[in-house]
UniProtKB/TrEMBL annotation:
The keyword Acyltransferase applies. It comes from Leuconostoc kimchii (strain IMSNU 11154 / KCTC 2386 / IH25). SUPFAM superfamilies: Acyl-CoA N-acyltransferases (Nat) (SSF55729). Keywords: Acyltransferase, Transferase. Pfam families: Acetyltransf_7. Residues 1-101 form the N-acetyltransferase domain. InterPro entries: Acyl_CoA_acyltransferase, GNAT_dom. One of its GO terms (molecular function) is acyltransferase activity, transferring groups other than amino-acyl groups. This is Putative acetyltransferase.
Length: 102
């Protein structure tokens, strides 16, 4: 994890057995990654991680692939708005730039 998000602030969500089930990496108000184990998705863990970071920041930005409908739904539910739609030449995917402001 540390090599994937080396300069990020990492916020971790643990289950009752102290196993990591989700984490959010944030770097200079940019959400570099949000991951929740599949069996723990739809339980509000992503929202809790986002809300924690929202308490610390005045605004946040991120990028998400258009085809990642689950993540897009979470971000829209948490009041992020789509600012731009671009094409990622490295992955051949459409990507949204999103922001949230207090």
């Amino acid at each position: 994890m540390a090599t994937l998000l080396p300069k990020s602030n990492l916020y971790v969500y643990y289950d009752n057995n102290k196993h990591i089930v989700g984490f959010l990496g944030e770097m200079d108000s940019y959400i570099a990654g949000l991951f929740v184990k599949k069996e723990f998705q739809t339980l509000g863990i992503g929202t809790q991680l986002i809300n924690h970071v929202k308490e610390l920041k005045n605004s946040l930005t991120l990028h998400v692939y258009k085809k990642n409908s689950k993540a897009l739904k979470v971000y829209l539910k948490n009041n992020f708005v789509i600012d731009a739609e671009t094409f990622d030449n490295e992955t051949d995917e459409i990507e949204f730039s999103m922001t949230w402001k207090k």
